[in-house]
Amino acid sequence: MRKILMYAVLATISLAACKKDQSSTQPAGEVKADWTSDNSTNNYTSKAYSPYTVFNNVWGSGYGYQSIWANNGNNWGIWSNHPNTSGIKSYPNSERKVQRLLSSLNSLTSHYDVTVPADGSWGADYDVWTNNDKYEIMLWMNYRGNVGPIASAYPNGVAQINVANKSVGGHTWNIYKGPVNANGKQVFSFLRTSNSLVGDVNIKDIMNYLRNDLQWIGNETIDRVQFGFEVTSTAGGRDHRVNNYTVSFN
């Protein structure tokens, strides 16, 4: 009886060690998910969880492997192994359509709660798009490594801050105005002055600040709100998880 029990214990230890070893090279093996996919055959797989849609969205030059899992549009994550080179490799995200004129919105808010790795190069960011993608408003909630905003000027190789330490939308930001590209799109980047893992952001207040105070935009139609991870490097494999994400408007 003691021998059988000893074998059972050893088997349990061996299985646990095997799982631990596997998790160091494979994506989130113990995550129970409604949907999983990866970029081995398609870089742009997606799953609709009305009113959200989750996208894997691997698009940058020199990308590596990336898998995605989701239980719904509010709880999802990725495991990625992108090489330690410059340039964005992917932006996996969850998106909610808004498609309302800014002036017609009484409120537009979002909640985020993420788990991120301690190394690599990436950002946990919102992308707020106006109609026809004329403007892209990026809200950098948490970021590390070799990443930075698109900006109009880079004196001495450093992005120029247009507005420093501005408190709006429930957070304090450094704000960068990017150039208009060949397609007529302009990027405005709000980089939080300290990293955050969980919180709420008042997106309407930020859009009104862009319109009324900075006068960088007009009374635009807010097309969609995305939140996800802009990944540059996760060499060796890293997890990013969205524990909870919501977008609300009326």
Automatic annotation (TrEMBL):
PROSITE patterns the record matches: PROKAR_LIPOPROTEIN
Signal peptide: 1-19
Entry superkingdom: Bacteria
Entry keyword Kinase: no
UniProt-listed SUPFAM superfamilies: Concanavalin A-like lectins/glucanases (SSF49899)
Keywords: Carbohydrate metabolism, Glycosidase, Hydrolase, Polysaccharide degradation, Signal
Keyword Signal on entry: yes
Stretches that traverse the bilayer: none
Family the entry assigns: Belongs to the glycosyl hydrolase 12 (cellulase H) family.
Name assigned to this protein: Glycosyl hydrolase family 12
Naturally occurring in which organism (per UniProt): Pedobacter rhodius
